[in-house]
Design a protein that fits this description.
Elements: H1 9-15, E1 23-26, H2 32-37, E2 42-45, H3 50-67, E3 77-82, E4 85-90, E5 94-100, E6 103-108, E7 112-115, H4 119-125, E8 131-135, E9 138-141, E10 147-148, E11 152-155, E12 158-161
């Protein structure tokens, strides 16, 4: 719940170093944006129906399965949800990843995959040695970087910003 006697649900979640998946239930609409900024799975406005509750549970279950998807060293692909389908994404085809509203856009060589996975969850699926988070809204594959300076990265003609908190990143 958002409003509790001693501490708000938002403040409690912020205090955790490794927060769990959370579905907020509350009678207040004004905290929805902040809850999603903290990667809440869902936000249920009281009173809510059983079907709405089950939808949130299913969403949490799907996210749990996605987070626990094993990335073996030999795998050169991941599966991400695109609409109602799980789409195979070849890691070698990824040009860059961009958070865009409620979606994460995965720009491949010849197509765009749009998924409701958060960029944080997608980052967990990608091999850390091959991909780099350079901005809160961007992930790039190291082998696609054609050049960079302290403020931006070029992937071919596409210019990707380097966020202020990411200026010390190691690209090698």
């Amino acid at each position: 719940d958002i409003k509790m006697p001693d501490i708000s649900g938002i403040d409690f979640l912020k205090s955790l170093s490794n927060p769990p998946m959370v579905v907020f239930t509350t009678a207040y609409t004004e905290h929805a944006v902040q809850s999603f900024e903290l990667d809440a799975v869902d936000y249920l406005l009281k009173p809510f129906s059983l079907s709405r509750f089950l939808k949130a549970c299913n969403k949490a279950h799907e996210l749990y399965n996605l987070r626990n998807q094993k990335q073996e060293a030999k795998n050169d692909f991941i599966f991400v949800k695109d609409g109602y389908e799980q789409v195979k994404v070849e890691l070698s085809e990824i040009m860059y990843v961009e958070a865009s509203g409620n979606y994460t856009q995965i720009q491949l060589r010849n197509k765009l995959v749009s998924s409701r996975i958060t960029i944080n969850d997608l980052a967990e699926l990608l091999p850390k040695n091959d991909f780099i988070r350079c901005h809160r809204a961007f992930i790039v594959p190291k082998n696609k970087i054609s050049k960079f300076d302290r403020n931006q990265i070029w992937i071919g003609e596409k210019i990707i910003p380097i966020g202020a908190t990411y200026t010390g990143i190691q690209l090698t």
